[in-house]
């Protein structure tokens, strides 16, 4: 505030000499100078236009909301509220204080040797080819940075990238900041029945075909899908793969939820389809694989010519990821590979552990007037809340979109925080997400039971 200059000076001018000095200061000149400086600084140091208007992030806003309203349960952000497997966290504890001090120092920039070796051991049999740990894998700061390096390493000015909505919200910023143009296509529900599953959300083939042209550089696939939980089927993947091959387009396949798939559904890696290895970059996450989202280690694998482009972006941005965490992820993979054929292997036990949580939350939502889409994979449920519209007064919430109004009012009244899915749609398609709220179910049973109690009590009061 301009006035605070004079106030500040006067308040510290205790002696009469100081007060004389204060009288000599020309405050008008000081204020004019301050105005000139702040407007020229505002012009010069504004956000570069490639980041648009610096749109709000739903994550920043809803973390703030959770801190403000302290909802009794937070089913917003996707992370477990219970411990990761013991061997995983113990590995990290041992590494940092263990007898090899070098494990606390820089490691190889494109991936710690023990980790890339293990990633190759895990994925080679799944992909059906020997993956070269040195040239065909990049370790990144979470899957997020693998996506960033893949997009910045391939998308050029004027290139088009096809993105399937709803989509993980950073894809679009990464594409536009690389100078590319995003072409969106939305998954739409085939019906609105009471027993919808994520397989009911489908792409219109004709619409997809119409988006491909000679500017198309890349298509981003996310399977299992956040937020719908859709696990793309063999025929859906073939349709996408055929179009990528026909138009010479890369596929960036975000598979961070690869181990969270509920039987009888199976995760199919699009890189395994004929002719797709050559044009696919597949992304994974240690955070999701071992339930340690705060570790922020991810990876990308694919043919050396493509991975090389990611490496260039990575080496000039992150350069090398945290060594002890990479070593711990490597040891965790070794532990799981040693029990790969047992149901205790975390790659398989995680989905078994999550299934009753999913079913419990689906039932809770159904019993209380929501229409949830049962997810075949991942750990989110999208639920249509519109049958509850007459029970909740949304007019007090100033937001533009109904799902923002609903999730905020619901958090305040019921004490259960969910995420508004319009955050996962482009502006022209936001109306497609307005009737839904996204709930995360990788939470302690007691917190899911509390959710049930809170939603039931809220419903009974209305
Ligand atoms: C679809 C999708 N991709 C990528 C990520 C980022 O993963 P990481 O935490 O490893 O950066 C997430 C995290 O929620 C996600 O949901």
Q: How would you sum up this structure in a few lines?
A:
This protein is of the alpha/beta class. It has helices spanning 4-12, 16-24, 27-44, 58-69, 86-97, 113-127, 142-152, 170-177, 205-211, 234-246, 286-289, 304-315, 323-338, 346-367, 402-414, 445-461, and strands at 73-74, 137-140, 160-165, 181-186, 188-189, 201-202, 216-222, 250-254, 280-285, 298-301, 371-373, 380-384, 416-417, 436-440. The chain has 16 helices and 14 strands.
Commentary on this structure:
This protein has 462 residues and is of the alpha/beta class. It has three domains: 4-46, no CATH class; 58-83 and 345-461, Aspartate Aminotransferase, domain 1 (Alpha-Beta Complex), CATH 3.90.1150; 86-338, Type I PLP-dependent aspartate aminotransferase-like (Major domain) (Aspartate Aminotransferase, domain 2, 3-Layer(aba) Sandwich). It is built from 16 helices and 14 strands. It has helices at 4-12, 16-24, 27-44, 58-69, 86-97, 113-127, 142-152, 170-177, 205-211, 234-246, 286-289, 304-315, 323-338, 346-367, 402-414, 445-461, and strands spanning 73-74, 137-140, 160-165, 181-186, 188-189, 201-202, 216-222, 250-254, 280-285, 298-301, 371-373, 380-384, 416-417, 436-440. It has a seven-stranded mixed sheet, with helices on both faces. Strands 11-12-14 form a three-stranded antiparallel sheet. The longest helix is centred in the C-terminal third of the chain and has 22 residues, at 346-367. The chain is globular and about 85 Å long. The model has no long low-confidence stretch (mean pLDDT 93). Pyridoxal-5'-phosphate binds next to helix 7.
């Amino acid at each position: 505030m301009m006035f605070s200059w004079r106030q500040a000076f006067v308040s510290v001018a205790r002696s009469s000499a100081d007060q004389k000095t204060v009288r000599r200061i020309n405050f008008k000149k000081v204020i004019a100078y301050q105005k000139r400086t702040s407007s020229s600084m505002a012009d010069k140091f504004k956000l570069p236009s490639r980041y648009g208007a610096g749109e709000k992030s739903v994550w920043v806003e809803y973390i703030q909301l959770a801190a403000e309203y302290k909802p009794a349960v937070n089913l917003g952000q996707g992370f477990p509220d219970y411990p990761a497997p013991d061997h995983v966290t113990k590995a990290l504890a041992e590494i940092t204080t263990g007898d090899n001090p070098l494990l606390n120092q820089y490691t190889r920039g494109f991936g710690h040797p023990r980790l890339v070796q293990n990633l190759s051991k895990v994925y080679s049999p799944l992909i059906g080819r020997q993956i070269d740990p040195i040239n065909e894998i990049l370790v990144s700061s979470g899957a997020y940075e693998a996506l960033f390096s893949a997009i910045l390493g391939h998308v050029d000015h004027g290139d088009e990238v096809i993105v399937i909505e709803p989509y993980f919200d950073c894809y679009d910023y990464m594409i536009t900041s690389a100078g590319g143009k995003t072409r969106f296509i939305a998954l739409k529900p085939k019906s609105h029945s009471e027993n919808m599953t994520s397989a009911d959300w489908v792409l219109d083939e004709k619409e997809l075909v119409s988006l491909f042209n000679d500017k198309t550089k890349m298509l981003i696939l996310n399977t299992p899908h956040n937020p719908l939980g859709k696990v793309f089927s063999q025929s859906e993947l073939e349709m996408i793969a055929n179009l990528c091959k026909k138009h010479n387009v890369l596929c960036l396949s975000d598979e961070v939820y690869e181990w969270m798939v509920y039987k009888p559904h199976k995760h199919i890696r699009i890189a395994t389809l004929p002719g797709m290895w050559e044009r696919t970059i597949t992304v994974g996450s240690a955070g999701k694989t071992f339930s340690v989202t705060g570790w922020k280690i991810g990876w990308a694998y694919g043919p050396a010519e493509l991975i090389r482009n990611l490496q260039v972006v990575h080496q000039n941005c992150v350069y090398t990821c945290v060594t002890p965490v990479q070593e711990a992820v490597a040891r965790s993979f070794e532990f799981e590979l040693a029990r790969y054929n047992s149901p205790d292997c975390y790659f398989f036990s995680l989905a078994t552990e999550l299934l009753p949580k999913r079913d419990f939350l689906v039932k809770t939502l159904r019993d209380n007037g929501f229409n949830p889409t049962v997810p075949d994979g991942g750990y989110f449920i999208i639920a249509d809340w519109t049958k509850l519209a007459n029970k909740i007064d949304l007019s007090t919430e100033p937001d533009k979109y109904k799902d923002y109004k609903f999730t905020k009012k619901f958090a305040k009244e019921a004490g259960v925080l969910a995420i508004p899915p319009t955050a996962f749609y482009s502006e022209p398609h936001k109306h497609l997400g307005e009737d839904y709220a996204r709930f995360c179910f990788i939470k302690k049973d007691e917190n899911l039971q509390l959710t049930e109690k809170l939603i039931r009590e809220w419903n009974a009061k209305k």
